[in-house]
Amino acid sequence: MKASFSTLALTAAVASAADFNTTDNDVFAPRVVGGYEAPVGQYTWTVGLRQTQTGRQGCGGSLISPTWVLTAGHCVSGGAPAPKYIAVGTHYLEGNSDGEIIAVKNVVKNPSFSDPLTGNDIALIQLARPSKFTPIKLSKKAVVAGDSVRLLGWGGVGGGSDNVGAQSPVLKQNDFTVLDNSECQSRIQATRDPQLSNWIAGPTHLCAGGIVGQASCKGDSGGPLVRMNADGSSSLVGDVSFGLPCAQGVPDVYGRIAQFAAFIDQTATGHQWDDAAPGPTTAPSRTTPTPPKTPTPPKTPSPPSGICDLYSNACYWPPNGQYYLVPEYDCVVQGGVWCP
């Protein structure tokens, strides 16, 4: 009997979720290295997950609506303690001298997440009351190789045997260039790290960076990766997932927000996508304009025999034999096999 994929979780795990939150694991739990201090008050939708009201941030996240925060799945899974408070709009790693501290009401894990290596690294946190700060819009627009993106977090300043150093007491920012998934996969596999020697970059992964001396590093998983728009606004395109030892010239891996649209829309409320059609601003013309031609979507090929015996409404990714909860169109155009 074939089960709906939306009710199942991936079972292949390379490392336990608890590993991603230790302070001595070089592969996971990133934070920003390099970069420079962000302007005070400019990125008030950046949040920190806390265990106490004035304690320092563990993971980071993004305010996507007055009552919902987006973070990484591994920040709230396995051995990671569920956050009790969210620091919204603060410029500082700890304390309560600015911004606001809001209690957590509910944590919703992506049912498709098992570990960052297989993707789907996202979770949503519901706040006990609305935040006064303006949320960031989410982006469904394609993020491709060569695009410029910005990472925000309370990152390490570098130094030491693992190039981590102490966390920054203030919010930092760093700019990177997006890499093609195939290049990212090759460069990460070439490190010969035992956990990543056979790693496959799937459709929910987004890669950026790979510059010596600049990277995400331990301590700020779940934090925002954004596209800076021409009007000065920002759109959320990724959340920090994992990376290798800090700032050694290896790309960092993020969750690709556009691939999580279904999960976000089914779970959160009050959020906005930056490509949502605006309402009319003037009275409509008496002459009905000719509608533009709708592009013909790619033809969905018939799946090979046996591929879709277990799951439905899912995308089978041939390079690693995994299934992902993504829209049919995205699955087909990226080379996946859609299981109806």
From TrEMBL:
Pfam families named among the record's database cross-references: Trypsin
Gene3D superfamilies tied to this protein: Trypsin-like serine proteases
Cross-referenced CDD domains: Tryp_SPc
Residue ranges, annotated region (Disordered): 271-303
InterPro entries the record matches: Peptidase_S1, Peptidase_S1_PA, Peptidase_S1_PA_chymotrypsin, Peptidase_S1A, Trypsin_dom, TRYPSIN_HIS, TRYPSIN_SER
Signal sequence, start to end: 1-17
SMART domains the UniProt entry points to: Tryp_SPc
GO BP field: proteolysis
SUPFAM superfamilies, per database record: Trypsin-like serine proteases (SSF50494)
Occurrences of domain Peptidase S1 (ranges): 32-269
Residue ranges of coiled coil: none
GO molecular function: serine-type endopeptidase activity
PANTHER family: FI18310P1-RELATED, POLYSERASE-RELATED
Name the UniProt record assigns to this protein: Aste57867_4228 protein
